[in-house]
Each structure stands twice: as structure tokens, then as C-alpha cells.
Design brief:
Structural class: alpha/beta
CATH architecture of the largest domain: 3-Layer(aba) Sandwich
Pfam families: SpoIIP (PF07454)
Strand order of the largest sheet: 1-8-7-9-4-2-3
Strand content: 5-15%
Oligomer: single chain
CATH topology of the largest domain: Aminopeptidase
Largest sheet: 7 strands, mixed
Helix content: 40-55%
Keywords: Membrane, Transmembrane, Transmembrane helix
Radius of gyration: 26 Å
Order of helices and strands: HHHHHEHHEHEHHEHEEEHEEH
Protein name: Stage II sporulation protein P
Shape: globular
Number of helices: 13
Distance between the termini: 76 Å
Organism: Metabacillus herbersteinensis
Length: about 375
């Protein structure tokens, strides 16, 4: 071997050694920081799913393809990670670019953690945010429809016997409504725009859903406290607007927790603004208002609340296939980002149906949820 070739081989060897040392330091840094929660979603996903040995081989393989298996594919790209960190734009995800250029487009940043049947980015949950003057305008109730729907809905209730277990007078579930004005169009007269489906009448808005859920849980031995506060009036008294609704409901929740240390679960009930074709399904010949879960990620209880939502969602789908539209995660850029879920690790924001749903459809879904929730509740009762 010539002297020139010997020098070249030496440099190659040194380069490989230096490369190995460099990536050892990089991997060590990743391991050290992997316990921290990063704000950048791409970096978080990259670190959470990392396998140190595989990553090391991947990086060495990028220099020497001998280290790749015959059919091995790259599952991630360090270039893409670096590009995202520098620009906050995800390659291949147009939402990360357009969301900064088109007003209102940031709603599509909502993360679909569990997609229900037919759920995609074209039919994400839609939240109407009417001004306070619209909320204060009381809508006339369609009394005939209400009476007919109530009759049909109440015919379906099955639980009549005393529950095998009871909470012995304790109230462990707190049901409330940050948007108590959200009503259902079929129960109101002359409502064509979803933003107009608002009412303080407890029989035609989401308070009716909360009341029915409290009743169904009670039938199954679970004590529930239902807050029927008119949030619209509360906001008006303080000269607050729609954007302060979670701040207002937070005070109510904190008061409830302070007055009852037995409260373990918080359930904030809403309804979506999507049309009936998206929010309704048929299971076993019965109509159901589809439901879904919203989890805020801007707080320390995020992982526990997400896990709870995923577990209940999975059990619902197992018993009632198609009833759920899924589990969605939102940060501050897509909504409140917290939703009072920082107050406990057993908090749910649950949306029952949409603006076009009727009471029989809603009641069927409430009963389904109560059944699944109570099964989980009593199985975990020893740890409560």
C-alpha cells in the first residue's frame, strides 16, 4: 500500500471515529432531555418514539449503507426534524404553512388522537362563538316538538331496578357547562343559522343533557352534582365576553371542589355545531347523537386526562360501534388549551351530538355513555 493510500485510509478511520463520538454525545443529550416536555410537537414525537440503538445505527447507516438491512426504510429524517425546529413548518403537512397565512385556518391544527368512523380534517369539531348580544337574545321554544321528543326519549330508559352498588350519598362526579347556552335547533322556533341556536331554557340546551346524565349515573349508583348556572348571565354581569367562559366556569368548578373533597371526576358537557349528517348515527336500529372528547394539552395533567378519554372512548366503541367521533387534542392556538382540566387528572370535556340533534338521539347516547362510564367507575372504585 502506498503512503498516499495509507494516509487516506487513516483519515477515513478518523472520520468514522469522530462521527461515532459526535453521535454518542447527541444521543446522550437526547436521553437526558427526553424526560422534559417540549413545546415543539415534532421534537416531542421524535423523542417519545425514539429507540436509541436504532437511531445510532440509522445515523451511522446514513454514512455507510452497509448498516441498513435489505428492506429497511427510514422512519424519520433528521433533516425534517431540523427544518421543523427552525421554521415550525412540518414537511408534508400543508396545515403548518397555511395556518399562519389564512385567518381561521389554525382550527385545523387540532390533533386527532383517535379518529372515529368517518372522522378526518374535513369534519373536525366546529365551535360557534357568537357575540354576547346574540347569546342574550332569547329564542322561542318549539313546545310541541319538545313535548313529543321528551315523550319518545323517556320511553327508552331501561334502568329501573336499584343499582347493585351505590356511592352511599357521596357525589363523586361534577357535571357542568362552560357554554350553557348551547341549544338544539329542533327544540327552537325559526332557527336556521347554528349560531342562533342559543337559549337559557334548561329543557332545550346542554343543561338538559347534563340533567339526563346525572339521572342516568344516579340509576347506576353514582352520585353526581350538576351545576345549572346560566353562564350567559354570569358573563354579562361581569362585562365579560364569550372568550371568558372557561374563566367563569373555572370559578364554579373550584368552588365545587372546595366544598366537596369527594369530587373525583369533572365533566364539562357541550354540543357541536356540525350538521346532523356528521353528528348522528344508527346502531342496532336506534338513532344516536355521536359524541367525542376534547383534551387540552397546555397543563400538567394532560397525559392522564388523555389516557382517561382514550380508555372510555375505546370501551364506548366496543359496545356501541360508531358512536364516537374520536378523541381530539387542542392547544391554545386552537382553543382554550386547558379547559379546566388542570384541576384534576380525571377531567373530561365531552360533546354530545350537534346543533341539529333531537332528544331521543341525545338520550340514547347519554344512556350509552352512562353505562360505559359506570362500568369503569365501579371497576376502579377501590382506587378512588
Amino acid at each position: 500500500m502506498s503512503k498516499k493510500k495509507s494516509v487516506i485510509e487513516s483519515f477515513k478511520y478518523i472520520n468514522v471515529v469522530l462521527l461515532c463520538i459526535t453521535w454518542v454525545f447527541i444521543l446522550a443529550t437526547i436521553i437526558i432531555f427526553s424526560s422534559f416536555k417540549f413545546s415543539n410537537s415534532t421534537l416531542s414525537e421524535f423523542i417519545e418514539n425514539i429507540e436509541v440503538t436504532d437511531v445510532f445505527i440509522h445515523f451511522i447507516g446514513s454514512e455507510n449503507h452497509y448498516f441498513y438491512g435489505e428492506n429497511e426504510k427510514q422512519e424519520f429524517s433528521i433533516n425534517e426534524v431540523a427544518f421543523n425546529l427552525a421554521t415550525n413548518i412540518k414537511l408534508g403537512d400543508v396545515r403548518s404553512l397555511l395556518g399562519r397565512e389564512i385567518p381561521g385556518f389554525s382550527i385545523y391544527d387540532t390533533e386527532i388522537v383517535v379518529a372515529g368512523e368517518g372522522t378526518n380534517y374535513t369534519n373536525l369539531p366546529m365551535e360557534s362563538s357568537p357575540p354576547l348580544e346574540v347569546l342574550l337574545k332569547e329564542r322561542e321554544v318549539a313546545e310541541e316538538n319538545l313535548a313529543e321528543f321528551e315523550k319518545k326519549a323517556n320511553m327508552g330508559s331501561k334502568v329501573k331496578d336499584a343499582p347493585p352498588k351505590t356511592a352511599e350519598g357521596k357525589k363523586n362526579v361534577y357535571i357542568y357547562h362552560s357554554h350553557s347556552w348551547e341549544a338544539f335547533a329542533p327544540l327552537l322556533k325559526n332557527v336556521e343559522n347554528p349560531d342562533e341556536a342559543n337559549s337559557s331554557n334548561e329543557k332545550v340546551n346542554v343543561l338538559a343533557v347534563g340533567s339526563k346524565l346525572s339521572e342516568e349515573l344516579s340509576k347506576r349508583g353514582i352520585g353526581a352534582e350538576h351545576d345549572t348556572t346560566n353562564v350567559t348571565e354570569g358573563l354579562q354581569e361581569r362585562k365579560w365576553n364569550y372568550n371568558h367562559s372557561y374563566k367563569y366556569s373555572r370559578e364554579r368548578v373550584q368552588e365545587a371542589i372546595a366544598g366537596n373533597n369527594e369530587l373525583n371526576f369533572l365533566i364539562d358537557i357541550h354540543r357541536d355545531s356540525q350538521p346532523k349528517k356528521i353528528t348522528t348515527t344508527t346502531i342496532g336500529g336506534k338513532p344516536y347523537a355521536r359524541l367525542f372528547f376534547i383534551v387540552g394539552k397546555e397543563h400538567s395533567n394532560y397525559e392522564q386526562n388523555l389516557q382517561l378519554a382514550k380508555e372510555i372512548n375505546a370501551k364506548l366503541e366496543a359496545k356501541f360501534p360508531g358512536i364516537s367521533r374520536g378523541v381530539f387534542v387542542k392547544g391554545k392556538s386552537q382553543g382554550n388549551g386547558v379547559y379546566n382540566q388542570d384541576l384534576t387528572d380525571r377531567a373530561l370535556l365531552l360533546e354530545f351530538g350537534g346543533v341539529d340533534n333531537e332528544l331521543p338521539e341525545l338520550y340514547n347516547s347519554i344512556e350509552a355513555f352512562a353505562k360505559v362510564f359506570s362500568d369503569s367507575y365501579w371497576k376502579d372504585a377501590e382506587g378512588i
